[in-house]
Amino acid sequence: MNRPLPTHQQVRTSMETELDASRSAGRRATVSNVEKQLGVTHATFYRNYPGQIAWFKAQLVARREGAVAVRDTVKHQDDLDRLRRENTDLRKQLRIYAEAIRQLSMDKALLEDKLQVLTGTTDLDERRRQQDLRGVSQRETEARVAAGEGSALGVGEHGRRLGPPGHLDGLPAPGPHRPGGAGAAP
């Protein structure tokens, strides 16, 4: 005796019920369970409802991809949190190392200065820098004299007595009347 086949609406309702039941039970939804609910054999079901089966399988794929997407989102968020923590830790370490390098650089400069004093040597770069500064001061003094702001033997900036051009700190130029100057006795 042949039973009438279920309608497309009945098949769709049964499939939706199977999808909901499997989701709430945490199991996998299958076409076989839908066939059992409807009382239809496997071959008959596939022969008469291929469109419904395609829809059901598409729902299964979408649900699986959604679950994977949720897992991926959680995994991505965990990865981002871990990377943020690592980044913060690395920045802290970088600050510590930068401070250590700064301190070591200062210690090195102090030790080099002490070494120069103890050995009586002069750092050429430092000496050149000081000579450049003296040259700038001399040019400034000559420019003031040329502009009429002072005289070669006048009072300079900060109330300091100036000597002839080329001599700093108000010291008189060595001459024949000074020890070590031109014309001095050997």
What does the overall shape look like?
rod-shaped
The major β-sheet equals: none
Report helical residue fraction: 55-70%
| Order of helical and strand elements | HHHHH
Radius of gyration from the alpha-carbon trace, in angstroms: 47 Å
Mean pLDDT, to the nearest integer, reads 78
Tell me the total number of β-strands.
0
Q: Which structural class do you get from the secondary structure elements?
A: mainly alpha
Q: Approximately how much beta-strand content do the residues carry?
A: under 5%
Q: Which regions have little confidence, pLDDT < 50, spanning 5+ residues? A: 151-156, 166-171, 180-186
The helix tally amounts to 5
Distance between the termini: 145 Å
Overview in brief:
With 186 residues, this protein is mostly helical.
